[in-house]
Amino acid sequence: MAGKITQEQIINSVYANLRPSNTTQRVFLRRRLQDTWTKWDPNHQMCLSKGEFLHCGIVSFLNKLQREFVERYKQGRLKKPKEATIARMSLGKPPKLSSGRDWFSHYDTSNDKLLSQEEVMLGIIEAFKVKSNNEKDAIRDTVERVWPVFDDDYSGQIDQWEFLVKGGLHDYLILLDDEWKSRPKDRSSKHFLNLYFKAGRRHTIISPPSLSDPTLWFKHFDFDHSGILTEKEAMNGLYTTLNATTPKQRMSVRHFITGIWDDEDEVMRIDDFMKDGGFASKFQEFERDWKEEFYLGDIEEEEDTTTIKIKVQIPSDKKPGDVVQVASPKTQELLLLLVPEKLLWGGGEGEPYFFHVSF
Question: What range does the domain containing 342 cover?
Answer without folding.
Answer: 4-79+308-358
